[in-house]
Structure formats: C-alpha cells, structure tokens
Amino acid sequence: MAKLEIYLLGRVEILWQGESIIDKLSHKLIGILSYMAVNRENSFSRNKIANIFWDSSDSNSSRYNLRYNIWSLRKLFKDNNIKQDIFIADKESIRFNEEFNIYVDAEDFQNRLDNFRADSIDNLEHIRNLYKGEFLEGFYIKDSSQFNDWLFYERERFQRDYINVLAKLQEYYKSTERYQKAIEILENMININPLKEELYLELIKTYIQLDNRDLALHHYNRCCTVLREELNVSPMEEIKNIYKKIKKGEIKPKKEKKVSNIRKKESKLNLYYTDKSGLEDLLNRINESKDKEVIYTSTYPVGNIEYYWISEIIDKIIEKHKEESLKEFRRNYWNDLSMINSMAMEYSDNILLNISNEIINNKVFKALEILMKEIFNNKKVLIIINHFNGIDKKSLEFIKYILYRENIKNISIILIDKDKDHENMKEIRKYFKIEYFIK
C-alpha cells in the first residue's frame, strides 16, 4: 500500500512511496502539511488555515491561495495513480483522509510518550531516536507570523518532552551503574542547554563514580568557563563544594563499584597506532580488499591554532564528495562548521555568530559528527592522521568525542607518529583500547 511519510523532528522531510517529494512542494504547502500532521485526527476550519498562512491577505485571496495549494497536493498524488484522496473536505473544513496511509514521526513521538510505562526503557530509547533535532529545524515562513508563533510553541514543547525523556534515561542508566550511557545522555542534554548547572553537577558526580578525578575536574572547569563567558557568573555553591572535595581527595566512588574494570572503553570504531614505516603493511592488513574510502590527514606544529585538524577533515570531506550530497546537509550545521572552516561557508548562510568558545565546541563537534554520519552513511571509511602527536587540543577532544559516542559506523582510525608515549597518545590510551602495529 502506498505510504506518505512526514518527518518533522529535525530537518523536515516528506517521502512518498519511499522517495522524497520535498522539492515538489512549496514552502507554504510544507507548512500546511506540517500543521495538519501534528494533529491529523482533527478537522480544520478552512478559514483558520487560510488566515494562518496568508495573514497579510484579504479573506477572499487567502481562501483562494489555500484552495490552490490543496489542489496542487491532490494533483501530485493523482499524478502518481492514487485514486484515494489525501483529504476529506467540504466548503468549510478540511482534514486528512483516515484511510490514506500516513506516518508522522511527531505523532509517533507523542503517542509513545503518552503511553509510556516506567519499565519500558526500550520505548524511551525509541522516542529518543525519533528526535533527530528541533521540530521543523531551520524552517519558517516569512509572511506567516501566526504559523511562526505556532512553530515556536511546538518546537519548545517537543524539546521539553525530549529533555524529559533524556532525564528519565539518565536516571535509569545511573541507577543500573551504566555510567558511560548516563554520560552520553548528559552530554546530549548539555548540547541543548549548555547553561544548566545541574547537568554539569551530574556529569561530575558520574565521573567520580568512574573514579576519573581528571575528567570530573575538567567538567568543573568547563562549567565555570561557560557560565563566565555567557552569564558572567560563577557556579552554584554545590558545584564549588564538590570541586573542593575532589581537590582534597575527600570524594571517592562507592566501594562496591568495580570501576577499574570499566575505565577503558573498547570502541566499536577500530583504532590503530603505527609509525610511518609500518603504515603500508597495516593498510594491506586492514584494507586488503580496497573497499574502504581512505581519508589521509596530517597535523603540523602550528602552535596554539585551535581546530586545525578538524578544519582539515572538513576540507577533505568537501573535496571528496559530490556537491549535491553536501547541499543536502542541513544549512544550520554548515553555519556551525563555517565558524572554523572557510570552505564550509559556501554551503552556509554566512551568518557570523558571536558565541563563547565552549558553545562553539558543542556546535562544531555535533555538526561534524552528523556530517560524517550522513556523508559516510554505511560506507567503510579509513581515516589516517599523520603526525598525530602534533594535533591541537580541540581536535584531540573531538577524536575522543567520536570514539566515545560511536554514532558513526564502519570507521577505522590510524594514528601515525614516532613516539607512542607522547602525552597525546597517553590521553587516547587512557580511555580507549588501541591496537599497536610496529614494524
């Protein structure tokens, strides 16, 4: 049976029989579909919808515009040999035809949330995965203030529900001592609200349970930096007190926690180290069938230039992939990447953002992770980092970020340098298992 799929959580996408039809729809028509899809069991007044989308027109003009847009959509499906009408309509009202096969991710999200059971963690994870980003991310209609007001409210509502889902998951993973999962959830929440102090406090406490004093202190300093740069305030007293206790060695993980067994993470992403002389043999071993896309990068002794390697990997991705696929990537993420890479500006809105360094980290890391995930998709990819020990600190943090989160599949990373005991190698080795290949 033919199926219409409407995805509103994140970048809007509309599929008909598995293929995108977004380029065949006007901005207004996308808005009308989205507005009706969120409550598709309802019947809508034609006057109300006409006024929402054409609030600057007189009533006759707005009604005509609505009729034309509805006719355009009906024609689209009739041209695809579908006899069933997508709408049930009369002169005064319009609604979706209940017999028309329609899936709406926002409706799925809401239904699962409404029917949530406390013991259904799999259901919560499914809800979490449905939320690909803000409701109708980056979308608005220039001359429809009523629609944009509604959009703002819905965006806030879905994000609030999503944060509540994350909070429930974080509490569950913490209570079952799955601390790495709890950390992942907390980082998601901080990406949404980097000024919420309680999230940093939970992150610090979780790293204490992992017996990782260094990262607990790192996230205290991270919290201080964000609050100082964004609000010009210091952390709340509870965070200051826990910091003092960590420094004095007064806080320890609960004794029954066997944290030593979970300190190092064996990433699902393959991680290798070699020196220059062993690279060819290592490549022959892990890419014998030549089925991996190889991306060769290098670092240089460039002092304190931040994001240098990150900028290079963005350059390589842009150079290697077709312009059409790059243009499909969400523009707001290109805006974030353009803060540190000039080639990304070609695909951005050229908006200069005045934000703190910590917020830049969150935005750039998330945007590059999603770019790599979408561009590489299910490909096998091999990233080579030559002179790894010269990598800048921001880029080193990003390497740790993607190794930890494992959201990008089928990637192998080769680190090349002479000194396997350099501080950068020690930093990676502290948290992740690495396979050494020395000739």
From the coordinates shown, what is the CATH architecture of the largest domain?
3-Layer(aba) Sandwich
Helix content: 40-55%
The multimeric state of the shown protein is: single chain
Q: What value does the average pLDDT take? A: 85
- Rg for CA atoms: 25 Å
Alpha carbon gap, first and last residue: 58 Å
Spatial shape: globular
At the fold tier of CATH, the topology name of the largest domain is Rossmann fold
Strand content: 5-15%
In the sheet with the most strands, the strands line up as 9-10-11-8-12
Strand segment tally: 12
Sheet having the most strands? 5 strands, parallel
The low-confidence parts are 255-263
The number of domains is 3
Write a structural description:
Strand 2 and strand 3 form a beta hairpin. The protein has a five-stranded parallel sheet with strand order 9-10-11-8-12, with helices on one face. A four-stranded mixed sheet has the order 3-2-1-7. It has a three-stranded antiparallel sheet with strand order 4-6-5. The longest helix has 31 residues, at 145-175. The protein is α/β, with parallel strands linked by helices. The protein is globular, with a radius of gyration of 25 Å. Mean pLDDT is 85; it is low at 255-263. It has three domains: 4-106, Arc Repressor Mutant, subunit A; 118-260, Tetratricopeptide repeat domain (Serine Threonine Protein Phosphatase 5, Tetratricopeptide repeat); 270-437, Rossmann fold (3-Layer(aba) Sandwich). Helix content is 51%, strand content 11%. Helix 2 packs across helix 3. The protein has helices at residues 27-38, 46-53, 59-78, 105-114, 121-130, 145-175, 179-192, 197-209, 213-231, 237-248, 279-286, 308-320, 323-327, 331-337, 357-376, 393-405, 423-431; strands at 4-7, 13-16, 19-20, 44-45, 87-89, 93-96, 102-104, 270-274, 293-298, 381-386, 411-416, 435-437.
